[in-house]
Amino acid sequence: EFFEEIDADFNEGYAYMAHCCHALKHYDEYLLYLKKACNRNPQECKQILGHLFPQDLAPEEYYHYTINKIKQQQ
Predict the structure, then answer these.
(1) Residue 56: C-alpha distances to residues 50, 51, 52, 59, 62 (Å)
(2) Is 52 helix (H, G, I), strand (E, B) or coil?
(3) pTM score over 0.90
(4) 27-40 and 14-23 are packed helices; what angle lies between their axes, rounded to 10 degrees?
C-alpha cells in the first residue's frame, strides 16, 4: 500500500521490498520490485541485494541476470 501512495519519482525502499518478497518466496513480486530497485536506486539495490548476485555484476544488471537464470532453468 505504501508504494501506491508515493510520488512516481520516489526511489527508496524498493530493494528492501524485493528482499522481503524473495525471502517469502513471492517471486513474481520479487521480480517487480527488483526491476524497480535496479532502475531507481542501484546503490541501495547493491547494498541490500548484492549478496544474491556475482560480486562483479553491476546492480543495474540484477534484473536481467535473474530473468536469464529463470529462462535457463525452464
Answers:
(1) 10, 11, 12, 9, 11
(2) helix
(3) no
(4) 160
Instruction: Convert the pLDDT of each residue in 2-56 to its tens digit.
Output: 666 666 676 788 999 999 999 999 999 999 999 999 999 999 999 999 999 999 9
Can you tell me the distance from the alpha carbon of 49 to that of 32, in angstroms, rounded to the nearest whole number?
A: 14
CB atoms within 10 A of CB 10: 14
Query: What is the C-alpha separation between 29 and 14, in angstroms, rounded?
Result: 11
3-state secondary structure at position 13: coil
On the 0-12 / 13-18 / 19+ scale of CB atoms within 10 A, 35 is middle
